[in-house]
Hints:
- Two copies of one chain form a homodimer.
- By secondary structure, chain A is α+β, with helices and mostly antiparallel strands.
- Chain A folds into three domains: about 1-265, Spore Coat Polysaccharide Biosynthesis Protein SpsA, Chain A (Alpha-Beta Complex), CATH 3.90.550; about 270-330, no CATH class; about 355-455, Jelly Rolls, CATH 2.60.120.
- Chain A has helices at about 35-45, 60-65, 85-100, 120-135, 180-190, 205-215, 215-225, 225-230, 240-245, 270-275, 335-340, and strands at about 1-5, 50-55, 75-80, 105-110, 115-120, 140-145, 155-160, 170-175, 195-205, 255-260, 260-265, 285, 290, 295-300, 305-310, 315, 320-325, 355, 360-365, 370-375, 385, 390-400, 400-405, 410-415, 420, 425-430, 435-445, 455.
- Chain A has a six-stranded antiparallel beta sheet with strand order 18-19-20-27-22-25, with no helix packed on it. A five-stranded mixed β-barrel of chain A has the order 6-9-7-8-10. A four-stranded mixed beta sheet of chain A has the order 12-14-16-17, with helices on one face.
- The model of chain A has no long low-confidence stretch (mean pLDDT about 95).
- Strand 17 (about 320-325) of chain A pairs parallel with strand 15 (about 305-310) of chain B.
Amino acid sequence: MKAIILAGGSGTRLWPVSRKNYPKQFLKLNGSASLLQQTAERLTKTVSPEDIIVITNNDYKFHVKSDLDFLPLEHIILEPVGRNTAPAIALGIKYCVEKLGCSEDEVIFISPSDHVIKPAGKFARYINLSEKIAKAGHIITFGIKPDRPETGYGYIKVRSRNSEFRNQKYFKAERFTEKPDAKTATRYLKAGDYYWNSGMFAFCIKTMIEGFQRHVPQIAKMLDMSFDEMAANFKKMPDISIDYAVMEKSDKVVTVPLDIYWNDIGSWDSLYDVLDKDKNGNVSAGDVLPIDTRNTLIIGEKRLISTIGLEDCLVVETDDAILIAKKGEAQKVKDIVNTLKKRGRREASEHLTTYRPWGSYTILEEGPRYKIKRIVVNPYEKLSLQMHHHRSEHWVVVSGAAKVAIGDKKIFIHENESAYVPKSTLHRLENPGKVPLEMIEVQNGEYVGEDDIVRVEDHYGRKHEKL
Amino acid sequence: MKAIILAGGSGTRLWPVSRKNYPKQFLKLNGSASLLQQTAERLTKTVSPEDIIVITNNDYKFHVKSDLDFLPLEHIILEPVGRNTAPAIALGIKYCVEKLGCSEDEVIFISPSDHVIKPAGKFARYINLSEKIAKAGHIITFGIKPDRPETGYGYIKVRSRNSEFRNQKYFKAERFTEKPDAKTATRYLKAGDYYWNSGMFAFCIKTMIEGFQRHVPQIAKMLDMSFDEMAANFKKMPDISIDYAVMEKSDKVVTVPLDIYWNDIGSWDSLYDVLDKDKNGNVSAGDVLPIDTRNTLIIGEKRLISTIGLEDCLVVETDDAILIAKKGEAQKVKDIVNTLKKRGRREASEHLTTYRPWGSYTILEEGPRYKIKRIVVNPYEKLSLQMHHHRSEHWVVVSGAAKVAIGDKKIFIHENESAYVPKSTLHRLENPGKVPLEMIEVQNGEYVGEDDIVRVEDHYGRKHEKL
Lengths: 467, 467
């Protein structure tokens, strides 16, 4: 059995904390491990680590790498472009067959990377069960028994009274529905034979390939290519979910009801549900001072957040944006993100801190003709060989050691030492040491945009654009 | 007639914007002028600028100076310590008599520095009226006709049916009351002969001196000293308000009802009342994105503030602290400030930006062994000649020119140039130019507290502690 984790999403429903440049699955929202780490941890109770594959994209590759250090690098599959779940799963299947030499009878378990599920032990038993059912030729969807008329999830209607499934361990899936309105959701809840669609699946490789052949020839056709061809032509894939492409159409689909706690952390409201509350029903993280405040989520990053007389609110503070919402209305966060996108605002998709394979940089301050950054370079890492035409840079090391190339000059600078990089001068920054290098960069010039950069060699030392 | 403006207060009821190091009277809360500037502006409709005196303290001297540049420097009286209104007024009276040579019949108008009053024209007529009444030997308090059972103000009960005041332009003041509870306030409102105590007064010098002699001998005694002696012994003054010291006891007190708009901006709630609302009843300043938000005050400084489904809330964001309160509960802001004080938190009294006579500095970032500041030095200003034993400093000029003395070295550095100040080395920073000097300072060392500083000469060039 192989487990494929889908980790290419760039969810913005937890904006301003989750953004395209650092999305939900990599966040430590409910403890010391990221949601991706928790997902892998859960799976390793039944699947051995070397049987886990992660599908993500190039921007997130190093996040996956640092979150799942046990993972063989070649088990991180990169989608050239985002194309929803069906193409991603097809790419994963191709990878298992061609690169890992899986037989057509191999069972594959598909899991999102950003859900909370507990207890892990009980969940593991469901995975084992699903392997048996999948080997019998079924495509398995996992359903959650609803405990409220939730309008935020898709539902699966099952045929509950059904001779061939007398054991009740699983049901024939009859119909998949979109997110319902409140009235419909209430009806589903009453009916009793509707389950939340958890977004997890299990199937034999051949069963799913048949499914593609019968229902999405566009994708089936590409399965005949080699993995590399398929990846190269990935953008031609239809942008379509596995539910819509196969599940809703195939007659092989069954639903295994999961009697466990499941939460897709699809909004600040649902995060509030997951976390432990204090005696006033508040959830708070960071530097928080609540007065007469009840049933409120307060997540701070740096700044002091003081509240007075708040009830049923959500307060989320980041370096550059603050969200204050009435509980129950958190789904409107997407309206904010869309508005920001329309206005071309950086805050829609990027944090002030940008993570790179070599470390990270944070914009501390931006003025008319200057920009100040804190740069952290991880041990033994180096940045690309580069130059800027419109800005010069002043570097002051505040901790660690830096190996600096400026023009033909190569020097080491240490804590409390500085270096100056003139305009249009090739330079490279490197951390030769064993501890992170932390330095302050003061940029100066008529233009201090990120795109004023000419890369000659990337951080792996590979040649780039010509000068 | 002289007008004395009391501008020594360090109000924290508008925390986090108003703090001890930059209090309310200097803030531009309702337009382009600070409350102090608006106060002076109002008074100059009847009093000539050179007849205006401001009582404040040394920390605020340069704020007053830059807000009221028309004011002769010697008209800024500095209280050595804060001692409430009675001692302040006594000091002001002494100043008028000894330094300005006022006669005992001179009328003095006392005004707080942080209230909103309109229209100014009508207010001016009341001041003229009060001069006549004061000359007749009365001590005048100005009352505002209540339009709601306000619990946030003190009240004055007047004797409304009163032969000697048939003209109804003023009444005999019968009783001063503390802030009442809601029930009592409602009774006052019904009664019709209660007025809000506006904190403004007018009187002849001799009338008030008599008042002190009769009711507060402690203060009267000090009035026999010279102004300089009085200032030197100011800390011996009783900490007492003029209301309590004289108004409540004297039989000369009358109340002039003011039929104008008056607001003491005593809380975020009352600021909301003063400001113009949009069609949703919202008041917003800064980078704000409200969705389904009503009757809410949102004041942002730098960060994007997005709100969803808020109603009747107050949101105030500053560099280091955020306040989110339900409207009507803003008076609890003092609980927050007190809690912060108890915990020894800087945020209780200081902003990240500190204003000095020579300019200002802002803490951009603080780490274990470093601190980053943006320093702004006004044209022709200089800092003290100083040294630090535990930190060295890297300076990078981002705009303007700096004249820098480091040890015996004297150099000029300009935009995009830098300088290094080693530990325990005397240095001085100066702006010799015509535009503000803006520079980034990266401090480095085992201790980066503000108190690691040895001043040899202050910014006026006066010798300081010995080396």
